[in-house]
Amino acid sequence: MLQLNSEERAEPMVRALIDAYRSSQHGRTGSSRREFNIRYDKLVHKLAHATVSEEKRGRAILERMRLSRLIRWDNTPLQRDQIKTIYIAPASEKDLFIAVGETPPSIERVDGVGILAKHLNALNGHSHESAWKAALQQAIDNTNNGRSAEGLPNDASLHDEILAAAAAVLNNQKPILVRRLSAEKLRNSKLLQRRRETVERFMAQFLPPDLSTLEAWKVVDAPPTVLLRGPLGIELDDGALVNELQPGSPYTIREEILARARPVFTSAIRCLSIENHATFRETVAGNAHDLIVHTSYPSSSVIKLLRLLPATVQLWHWGDTDPWGYDILRVLREKTGRMIQPWGMSYRPRAGLPLSKREFAILTRLIGDPLVADIRSELLAMQTAGSKGDFEQESLPVVVL
Predict the structure, then answer these.
(1) Is residue 309 predicted with pLDDT exceeding 70?
(2) How does DSSP assign 271-313, residue by residue?
(3) Of the four, 11, 26, 139, 396, which is 20 to 30 A from 253 by CA?
(4) What would be the CATH architecture of the domain defined by 225-395?
(5) What is the pLDDT of residue 247?
(6) pLDDT at 103 exceeding the cut of 80
(7) Distance from the first to the final alpha carbon of the chain
(8) What are phi and psi of 226, to 5 degrees?
């Protein structure tokens, strides 16, 4: 059986032929009934960009492949020494890829599907088990059909650890630090932190946005706190009082303090929650008398604090005006049970920022949700434009309340 050495495998014409096969329907799906074929002149000049000497070496290697029956070719009529088209039969794929020291695409697909299927039952009895299975089945179908698995890396070798990490997060039931969970469930304290963005992107394929973060499943980088600024006092269950820690400066309140809170009191007449950290810092610097809270998709600590605030305090939220930003407002209203008003959240048209498939789905759901009926005109404007618009709150002037 033919085996090329490392220098031969690296020849531009060999690499171009292998890459062209991988990206073809034959390589991606294995379902084509006809042989893979590519014109020789295209291989040499458009794909390999081969020099005269590189073509000479490449053709010699192709001749050895032909004699080993890994490929075949036909010649240009009346020019028998000129190759016209190179063909690769489905039955030759395995030996061809072994010759260049690579795993055949057909075996990669089988292995990739096996990894995905292994995780199908990772959420047995979970409230989102059916959504998890549907997402994995879609990934399996995509892999079988030569498409990328949505939400998962293009590098299929990472799928196993991403799915294991996602399952560990979704099966978590008590507050835990990221590195602790990663060490206990994945035997690597840094893996979940390193793959966090990819894990959350996969979770976002089948979960509501407010449930597609690690924090939503009580997995946190540090013990939960609320970052805020403004006048606030808390009476604890033992009668002790906790007042504003640093008057005029941002401070944090730990979740265990909020869990023991009975009444809370404030001299502020309104509370503004702000999505982005930089905007929060800018806003607190110029507003001395209001209660200002930092939150994206709200943690249980933020929800607890907002619920405890007196009914006389007006609640407002200022966030980005993309589908995610409006959805944060919805979640705040849903989880606090209070009609939190939008602050500076009018849709601002801007071309060139099209909605993704996921964002369009979120927007469509929001338009039909009575909980945000008061901002439906903004949502419809975004839907009509097909663009997120100028959505970042950092692009607006600093708010003076």
Answers:
(1) yes
(2) EEEESSHHHHHHHHHT-SSSEEEE-SSPPHHHHHHHHHS-TTS
(3) 396
(4) 3-Layer(aba) Sandwich (3.40)
(5) 61
(6) yes
(7) 77
(8) -115, 130
